[in-house]
């Protein structure tokens, strides 16, 4: 199954000020998540951002908020966004959820497992999720894949949402997101 712009939402999980320094390749993950969020904003893909206990862990990094000016920010104390009942009806009404954020083996994993249990088609962007250790990252991806979540890359998201080089935004998206050095 392919990701479809009209059926999908981007969910950015817990990329917060006090959590980021602990994850493996934090700067790379942030740059790649920002790239993905900018693609989503450019294509009009709805975006939801979750924050885990923001009073204690801080808020989403400002650079990410700038990349998604229309995003809805929700907070939670459960590790899973589904268990936390923080996801807006607009996200739950769509069949597909594209997921990035942290940590791969905790909040991302639990959210993805429960989205799958709720019947959603879930696409985890492997190069835009992170954990404190590479081993936990890889275990989280493997477990999600084992439940039917699709493990994808940022470029897969871009090309599937566009579907064709004849898409009216293809030339712009190609120049903006595929040319030159990318994160």
Structural class: alpha/beta
Large-scale geometry: globular
Q: Into which percent range does the helicity of residues fall?
A: 40-55%
Mean pLDDT, to the nearest integer, reads 95
Number of DSSP-assigned strands: 6
- Rg, alpha carbons: 15 Å
CATH topology: Rossmann fold
What's the CATH C level?
Alpha Beta
Largest sheet: 6 strands, parallel
pLDDT below 50 for ≥5 consecutive residues: which ranges? none
As for the number of domains, it is: 1
Oligomer: single chain
Strand neighbour order, sheet with most strands = 3-2-1-4-5-6
Beta-strand proportion = 15-25%
Q: What is the succession of H and E elements?
A: EHEHHEHEHEHEHH
Please name the fourth-level CATH homologous superfamily.
Isochorismatase-like
End-to-end separation: 26 Å
Architecture (CATH level 2) name:
3-Layer(aba) Sandwich
Helix segment count? 8
Keywords: Hydrolase
InterPro entries: Isochorismatase-like_dom (IPR000868), Isochorismatase-like_sf (IPR036380), Isochorismatase_domain (IPR050993)
GO molecular function, one term: hydrolase activity
Protein name: Hydrolase
Question: Care to give the gist of this entry?
Answer:
This protein has helices spanning 26-43, 54-57, 62-67, 89-92, 104-117, 134-146, 154-162, 170-177; strands spanning 8-13, 47-52, 72-76, 96-102, 121-130, 150-152. It has 183 residues and is α/β, with parallel strands linked by helices. The protein has one domain: 3-Layer(aba) Sandwich (Rossmann fold).
